[in-house]
Amino acid sequence: MFVLETIHTEGISQLSYLVADTASGVAAVIDPRTDVEIYEQVARKHGVSITHVFETHIHADFASGSRSLADRVGGAKIYLSSVDANYQFSAELVSDGDRFDFGSFSLIGRHTPGHTPEHLSFLLCEADHPDQPWAVFTGDSLFVGSAGRPDLLGSDQADQLATSLYQTLYDFYLTLEDYVTIFPGHGAGSACGADIGDRLSSTIGYERRTNKFLCFPDLEAFREFVIGDAPPVPAHYPKLKVVNANGPSIMDRLPTIPALPPEEFRKAARLSGITTIDTRSMLAFGGGHVPGSINIAARPEISVWLGQLFDLDQKLLLIVDSDEDVERIQRLIVRSGHCQFAGYLAGGMKAWETAGLPLEQIDQVSVHQLRQLMSTGSDFTVLDVRSPDEWSGGHVPDAQHYFVADMRDRISGLDKEHRYVTYCASGYRASIASSLMKSRGFKQVSNVPGSWSAWTAAGYPVEQVNEVSHA
C-alpha cells in the first residue's frame, strides 16, 4: 500500500513529507524538521523503514533535521542537490532526472532553481508509469498561490535567481498536466514566499488559473514583481543558511536544560551571553517578571521570533508557566537553530516570588485607555510594531512604525526617559517589543492587549499611510 503523510510544523509553517510503500517496507522523508522523532513514529505506525532522506535545498528558516534523522533511524542515506550546492557534509548527490524506486512508486529529481541555485523538486509517479507523474514535491519553488522568493541570497544574486525562477515556473511546472498535485515546502505564514495560500496542497491546474506568479508571460515584469513585492528578509535566515550548508549538529535528543533554583537562576541571568526568555502570557508577564527578561509567549511562533531577535550563540534561560512545559517549549525553540540552554527557573515565578527576589512590571493599557490618553494630549509615543504591510493597511493615528523584527537595532536612538506604548495585531508582538525596550533600560513602556484587533473592533479612528479615515 502507498502511504503519504504530511507533517505540518506550526510557527514556521513548514511542510515535510513521509512517503512509503508498505509492501516493500521502505520509506523516504522530504525536508525533515529539526526535531525528528515524528518521522520515526509515523514510520513505525505503517511498519516501514526510512531509507532515504531528501533535501530540496539549503533551508533558511529552520535548522534541517536530515543528519539527525539519518543518524536516528540508522542506515538511511541523505540525498542533496548536485548542482550549484555549497553543502559541507557528505551525502549522495541528486542530478536532474535521477530516479529513486520504492516498490510501487518512484521519485524523480528535477533541478528547479530560482529560490536557491541548487533547488530540487521531486516528481511522484507510479513505478510502472514514470513518465506520468501524478504529484510533485515542490519544496520552496512553487507554493499554493505563491512562489519562492529569489532574494534570500542577497541583491547581487536576486536578478539571476529571478530569471531562473521564471524558467522553473514556466518551462517546468506549467508543462505538467493539470491533475498533478503539488505538495509545497511551506504553508501560509512563511516568509519564504509572499502571501502563501492557506491550503496545504493544490494542483497544477488550479495554480495555472489562480496563482499570480504564473500569470507573467514577460520575464521583466515577472522579475520586477517578485523582487519588488518581497517582504523583508528575516534576520536569522542568512545565519541558518550557513548552519544548514555546513551540516546541522546531530541531535539524538533534546539538549539538557538544568532546573535552577531562583538564586542560581538570578546569578546565571547576569552572565555575559545569556538571554532570559519568559514564555508566559503577556498579561502574566506584565503583572510581574524577572528584571531584564524578554516576553515571547509559548506559541508556535516563538521559534520565529527567537530566530529574528537573538543570535544563535546566545545561551537561553527559560521561564515557563509549569515545569512540565519545558520540553514542549524547547522543541519549538530548537527549530530556529537555538540549541544552547543555560537552564530554566525551577518552580516558575511562584518560586521567584517566594524567594523574595525583585520583580518588574509593564503596564497593560487597553485600547480605551489609549484613546483617552490620546485625547488628553499626554506626552507619549505610540509604536506600531507590526510588519510594513500591516502598517500600510492602516494604523493608530500619529503612531510611529517600528517593526519588532528590527527593534533590536533601531531603538538605540530613542529617548529612554520618554513614555512609549506598543501595539501589534493582538498584543503578542507588542509584548515582545515592550519587554525588549524594558530590558534595555527604557523607563516608561506600556503594552496594549488586543492591540489593533481591539482598536478597530472599538470603532476608533484609523490612519492610512497618506490619509486619515475612520474604522
TrEMBL record:
Hydrolase as UniProt keyword: yes
Superkingdom as given in the UniProt entry: Bacteria
EC category name: hydrolase
GO molecular function: hydrolase activity; metal ion binding; sulfur dioxygenase activity
Xref: CDD domains: POD-like_MBL-fold (cd07724), RHOD (cd00158)
BP GO terms, sorted: glutathione metabolic process; hydrogen sulfide metabolic process
A Pfam family hit: Rhodanese
SUPFAM superfamilies assigned to the protein according to its UniProt record, in alphabetical order: Metallo-hydrolase/oxidoreductase (SSF56281), Rhodanese/Cell cycle control phosphatase (SSF52821)
Record field: transmembrane: none
InterPro entries from the UniProt entry: Metallo-B-lactamas, Mito_Persulfide_Diox, POD-like_MBL-fold, Rhodanese-like_dom, Rhodanese-like_dom_sf, RibonucZ/Hydroxyglut_hydro
Record's keyword terms, sorted: Hydrolase, Metal-binding
Protein name stated in the entry: Putative polyketide biosynthesis zinc-dependent hydrolase BaeB
The species this protein was found in: Rubripirellula amarantea
Organism placement in taxonomy: Bacteria, Pseudomonadati, Planctomycetota, Planctomycetia, Pirellulales
